[in-house]
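Provenance

Sequences were taken from public entries as deposited. Structures were produced by running a predictor on each sequence independently, with no templates supplied. The record for Exostosin-like 3 from Lepisosteus oculatus is shown for reference.
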Amino acid sequence: EYMTGYTMLRNGGSSGNGGQPWVLRWSNRIRLTWLSFTLFIILVFFPLIAHYYLTTIDEAEEAGKRIFGPRPGNELCEVKHVQDLCRIRESVSEELLQLEAKRQELNGEIARLNLKIEACKKSIENAKQDLLQLKNVISQTEHSYKELMAQNQPKLSLPVRLLPDKDDTGLPLPKSIRSCRLHSCFDYSRCPLTSGFPVYVYDTSSYPWGEGLDPLVKQAFAASAKSSIYVTDNPSIACLYVVLVGELQEPFSLSPVDLEKQLHALPYWRTDGHNHLLVHLSQKSMTQNFLYNVSTGRAAVAQSTFLESQFRAGFDLVVSPLVHALSEPNFLEVPPQVPVKRKFLFSFQGEKVESLRSSLQEGPPRSFEEEMEGDPPADYDDRIIGTLKAVQDSHLDQVQVEFTCKNRPRASLPTEWALCGEREERLEVLKASTFALVIAPGDSQVVASAGCNMRLFEALEVGAIPVVLGDQSRLPYHEMIRWSEAALIIPKPRITEVHFLLRSISDSDLLAMRRQGRFLWETYFATAENVFGTILASFRTRIQIPAAPIREEPAQEIPHKAGKAAGTDPNMADNGDLDLGPVETEPPYASPRYLRNFTFTAADTYRAWNRPPGPFYLFPHTPLDPLLPSEAKFLGSGTGFRPIGGGAGGSGKEFQAALGGNVPREQFTVVMLTYEREEVLMNSLERLNGLPYLNKVVVVWNSPKLPSDDLLWPDIGVPIVVVQTEKNSLNNRFLPWDSIETEAILSIDDDAHLRHDEIMFGFRVWREARDRIVGFPGRYHAWDVNHQSWLYNSNYSCELSMVLTGAAFFHKYYAYLYSYVMPQAIRDMVDEYINCEDIAMNFLVSHITRKPPIKVTSRWTFRCPGCPQALSHDDSHFHERHKCINFFVKVYGYMPLLYTQFRVDSVLFKTRLPHDKTKCFKFI
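Predicted structure for Exostosin-like 3:
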């Protein structure tokens, strides 16, 4: 019934009966009430129960009353999730125990570190005390050093002034023009030793007569002044003021009075012209002496023509003519110096426009016996003409003399011999002449003339030995150059003995004088730059100011990474049976540079070879004199180097004690040229590890491609400097890099194999022959009769003339000569063929020293096995070297290489002796 009623209620409600809705509403209220009551019970009673249990757990003291405490038999752990919690609890407990042990350990470590900190603090305090004491000792030592320096070093101050501090317009001029000397007319206070010799050159457009100067001379003078390292634009600091006064053009004329007024109007003339140098450069033989009768005050004069009443010895300067004003001489057109004897024994072409007497129409000259009974000859020139014509008519020797010119010559001075014909015609005659006569003017009052200097210039240019007739003549730079080594200066009364004298000179002496003449011409006379530089250098030497240092090639270093220390190859340091004596066991240190002091110009100005410090005068001697290391020196523009010592001392202990004579603890620098052979280079550098006496290694990186970034360079105990070059050139091997701080250079290829004992022995040999190339691979030159040319030969032979610089010692001195002095044509040939740089260096050193190189050890080749192919393996290598030798001979004018059968080996070379007996021998 209930179900039926319920069904009826549902059916009734759904049918929309209006009496049934309250039943549905009542049932909905009952369900909502029950749901609310259930939620209330859950939200209220459950937290209260949980709170009760939690309170019971916190307040329970006995183990039996704890709800979640451990119970006997692990009754509570039998539940699965409770077991997991137990395992977690045990793991956490174990970790807590470990952390506690670690904490105790760290506390002990902290305690120990605190003790160490206290000890370090005490050590720091002690070190501070020691440092303070050291500072006090250093301060006292510096004070003592300053006191010693003050006691032993004089105070440097300016020289004593010759003139008042302020310009005095009323300062009187010298009483006599000829009374001027350096001590009385030059103000040394403007030129201290440390000034560097600043020179101010007047602009030719700043004075009136500058417009009348020869344009070629003016342009050449300006270019030379611009290239000089001594010229300054600041006149307030100048030591010397240079004024170009000539050469004047033909239409332009200037009276002595006007010239004197214009000179006094120069901005820095200072009333008397002290510290001024008036330069007159003559380009023609008929140059007029327009400074004659001009009051130059205290200014010095440099020109080619001087009268006795005008020239002030030790103050004025006789200079060479300026023939090649703007053009450079072609050295390939200069005739060779061999054969020694030429077609004509001597030659002379000239006409004396004004003569005291003429002997052309007179009879034969009188004998000396006849002249002794009467009056002496009125004019020696007449006797000269007669004697020379007699020699020509005798046909004993073929000579060329002409006393009448086809053209109408014009001389610059009375009684001076005028030049005949054009310059090209005169040179053709001189090229065929062994000697060239230079007859001084008949007037003894003429001490120097432009015509004589022009004859002297042309004779030296083509290799004709000058014979100056007239000992009263003053040749260019006569106070500095020893002309007797390049020319014959004969008094005119000995004209009758000239023929005998010229025939008596040996061929070797003739060749020596010809070489010296060529050297003087190239160094002092050939170009405008040479002439200007020699004028400045001569004046600088007179006032005893040292030259400026020679320019060194700045090394642009390539950064590189150093790898691990290289191992020492036992084969490289194996001496075999040789005992070369002790070596330095101290760590590397800077080798002493070659220096010069300020007393050099005062003590060595005029030595055995008294030559002027010209602009390119880097040669320590003439090409015919031997170079003595104690005499060797750099002089002139851009120089500042003097080799020290002669390398005295023997081998073994004695040599180690002396260590190069008066060069203590000398070292050498390895210069290694390379081109994109990194592996070969690294192996070669590693072989240098532990090499005694090695100061530094300079790697000349000749490739435009830089080394690999990941390339590790070996650490060999000394610095390795990698230099980047501007272009790929074999000439870079001999550039005087500023990184090279030693006199000795070991030039070595990147594929050369040398043992340490061989390098050490070669270095010791070089120290006793510092002027030569000392090396290992020997070569020689030979004359090809069939082709009439020179050949390069690398076959084994009992003699040699070259030592290749692929493994050789030489002085840095020759690096300057090779790069800055040697003719540019040779360096161009090396760049063209990419070959022959070693031959060029041998030519240069043999030309300078007149000595052959020195070969050490018996080995002839040092190439590493398995290295990549080098340039020398090319088929054209030897053909190019043949061409190089013949070209170099043309440039030098002769073959400078000398043969030798000399080789240097150790005293005990290949001598079988017990090891304990080697040091017992004494050689006397």
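The first helix runs from residue 2 to 14.
The two ends are 156 Å apart (CA to CA).
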